[in-house]
Amino acid sequence: MSDFFGFNTVMPGRQGGRIALNLEEQQELDRQVQKYALETGEDFEIYDYGETYDNLADDLEETRDDLNDETFGGAGGADEGTDFDFAKNTHQVAPALKKEEELYIKQSDHSGVRRSSFASLWENDGNNQQESFMKGLPEPSHAASSIWGSFGNTTAKGMDLGGNGGFAVHDPVFGQGTFALSRPAGFGGNQPSLEEIEAQLSRTAGAQPHLQMQQERKMMSLEEVEAALMNINGGRPIYSEAMIAEQQAKQDRLEQRRAERQAKQADIAKHNGLMTQSDKDFINRIQISQLVTDDPYADDFYCQVYTALRNRHLQQMGIPGNIMDAEGNQGDSRRRGGNGRTEQRMQQQVQRIVSDAKRNPKRTNVTVEGALGKIAVNSVLNPRQLLQVSKRGSYTESSGSNSPKPPSPGPVSTKSHTVLGWIENVYTYVLALEQKRRQQPPPPRMGEEEIAGEAIRRWNEEYGVLARKMWNELRITVPIGIVHPHPFISILNYSKGKKVIPRVLRHLLPEQTLTLLTMLVANFESLNVCKSEVYADVQGNQEIELFMNTIVPPLLGFVSEAPFRIVVGLLALFIERNNMIWVARSKPGLAFLTLFLSRAEILKQGQGNYPIPEDREVNQWNELYHRLFNQLQTHFSALFMPKATMAEDVHVWRFLAAMAVGATVDQQHVLVTEVREQVLENVIAAQTTRMSPEKAAQRIGNVNLFLHALGLDASQVSVPSM
Amino acid sequence: MTGNIGGLPPFLTLVGQPVTVELKNDLAITGVLVSVDQFLNIKLDNIKVVDEERYPHMLAVKNCFIRGSVVRYVQLPAPSVDTALLQDAARRERQQPATGARK
Predict the structure, then answer these.
(1) B47 Cα distance to chain centroid
(2) What b/e string do you get for A408-433 counting C-beta neighbours within 10 Å, with b at 16 or more?
(3) Mind telling me which residue stretches traverse the membrane in this protein (chain B) (predicted)?
(4) Candidates B13, B39, B88; nearest CB to A303
């Protein structure tokens, strides 16, 4: 007791009240104290504790310690260890425990003494105990493993309850129940109860099949009785009793099912009340806010338009059945009918939320008091910037000037991105115009014309503004000759530009369309689809096809409605500004020529909606025709593609036919002479049976296009014997 | 206010169609698209692992939920997609980033 880690523990008071300092030491001490007092200026007199010791330590019981070793075990208690291994000990007696439990099961009666499972006694929520007593959970004794838990699992689960370090004690008897008790506030209270609930569920689930088996055992017994009855009567069943037994069995089965259902409901209801009403509302709000949209077109443009288009398609193709029904089945039903009121309510709620959010915007930067700088709050809608893109100053448009704002080398490359920019602007306007169209105010009803008229006027104005902007963007009005190629042509050289034209045309006035066509015709030969070498590669062919599919048809429609002088004028322009030989070698060129020629013919014969043109105009036309013919003379056969490319030449035949219709007899002679080779080739090829019948028919048809225009037919062609 | 729906709309029209999803771990799965959400998580029904089912652990799996972040490609049936319309939709979204950026 006098040795505390090597320190001298002798207390001052042990030797009778005072430290015995001899005189010298006392004097030395006083001298030092005074010296110090002088140095520091402190008054040391007041620190004289002197007689302050109160002698209480003298009353301590510090004897009679002889039996300490016996009480506390050997020195340090090394052999026991500080941890008690409950698990190992329990494991050793586990078989015995199980046997005891089974005995208990056999002995106990099933008369509805329903006790909630052990673990639930340990639940934090005291209410549940009452409920489970009422509702009656299946007895844990049915599942032999239920009382004692499962030895294997608890080790893993025990360790899971994080951060317990040297917590070697895990109690398999009560599973995680004890943890819940011993550490209610230690780690988030949810964890133990969650695992508890899981463990409980698995236990009770394990209990169900036992319940079923019991009932079935009862069933078997009934049937046994039946069989027994049959045996007694020598094989003939006693109907009445058997039927009664059957009915009994059926009723039992029904009852059993009802009992099962109740048990399941009870199971689920066990966990009622976990969420508060506000929690449920919160989650509902989140889910439904995803469904309700302010403007269906804003977020869901693609879906809406796609489904609308598809429905229209299906309707056109005459597919029977209600299309809206099919829609509903695909899960869109939550949007459409059946929601009605709830949707409105949700919408109002959402609008309220939105307006609130607008008033108090959530900050994307959070600044904590005293911190050095801001913290960026990232979310799905405000993602972290990965790339720093510097904004270029937006370049101003000046009509007619083609100098792009960021300078780049070479005349060709300067055009590319500016032109693409123009195309995108056109798309923007087209989309806006189409959107406007959709929102077209309805025609005014009787008596409401004033108000409705105002809306309509406004709509018309806005529509007009957009249309004009789009028109400007197309650069059609740029005078020719300043820049080659003409900006509109540059636009048309891109497939994007080609695709936008049909949509543009829908919003243009007729004179604008005419101007467009004129511009196109005037600069035709600079189109990239006009170069004949374009046929060689696949992409070129695609562009040509695209041109034929997108630009030609709507313009065809336009020209078909055009009066004679316009056609004449266009053809004149065409011939004048373009090298016909060059143009005629391309599909688009031929297409246009055919277009003009045929339309003129129709008008000349008075079959159009216009009166027969005057002589003056007809003369003009004839003149034009001759010019064209002269230019193309001797080149007709060259119009056909070299056979190696296997390209279609229908359009050539069509063109020839158009030419032939307007030709004089001499000219027709010339035509026939020049293309004689081709005609013969096709006819021979068709008549020899080397190719399939469809192809042969096609060939003949092609040739007939031309020959009929001349008043001839393919059958009249006599094959010269080789 | 529902914010930026991102790449979701085309998938909404494809619900019910068979698609093939290729994941970043090279696993490719074909199945009928059941649902998609704003994170492009995908649920597939009746799945079948594409080419050389060297993923035998998938033999018994009928339906699956795929987290959007592990998807590399989704192969769509060509006739079910209207590319021109898709381009328009993309243009519109480009013009209206306001709803997305605000929150």
Answers:
(1) 14
(2) eeeeeebbeebbeebbebbbbbbbbb
(3) none
(4) B13
Alpha helix stretches (DSSP H) within chain B = 9-12, 83-95, 98-102
Tell me the pLDDT tens digit for each residue of A161-218: 444 434 444 444 444 444 434 444 434 444 445 555 555 555 655 545 454 455 555 5
Is A306 in contact with B85 (Cβ distance < 8 A)? yes
Q: Which A positions 342-361 lie with beta carbon below 8 A of chain B?
A: 350, 353-354, 357, 361
User: Are A357 and B13 in contact (CB < 8 Å)?
Assistant: no
**β pairing state of B18-23 and B28-36:** antiparallel
Q: Give the model confidence (pLDDT) of A485-520 as tens digits.
A: 788 888 888 888 888 888 888 888 888 888 888 888
Helix (H, G, I), strand (E, B) or coil at A551: coil
CB A652 within 8 A of CB A706: no
Closest residue of A to B37, CA-based? A290
> How many angstroms separate the CA atoms of A517 and A511, rounded?
10
35-64 of B, contacting A, C-beta below 8 A: 35, 38-39
A650-661 and A693-710 helices cross at what angle (nearest 10)? Answer: 20
Q: Which helix (H) or strand (E) holds A35?
A: helix A23-40
- Put residue A157 in one of left, alpha, beta given phi > 0 → left and psi -120 to 50 → alpha: alpha
Q: ipTM score here?
A: 0.77
Euclidean distance between CA atoms A506 and A433, whole angstroms: 10
Q: Which of A303, A427, A499 is nearest residue B91 as measured by Cβ atoms?
A: A427
Of A293, A353, A428, the CB nearest to B95: A428
**A530, A589 Cβ separation under 8 angstroms:** yes
Give the mutation candidate from A286, A290, A306 for the B interface (greatest B CB count, under 10 A). Answer: A306
- Contact flag A302-B84 (C-beta cutoff 8 Å): no
Can you tell me the distance from the alpha carbon of A440 to that of A385, in angstroms, rounded to the nearest whole number?
40
Closest by CA to A628, choosing from A590, A685, A676, is A590
Tokens 């005609």 sit on residue? A679
- Residue A662: how many CB atoms within 10 A of its CB? 21
> Tokens 């602007």 label which residue?
A425
Q: Which of B92, B93, B99 to mutate to test the interface with A (most CBs of A within 10 A)?
A: B92
> Could you say which of B5, B92, B99 has the minimum Cβ distance to residue A431?
B92
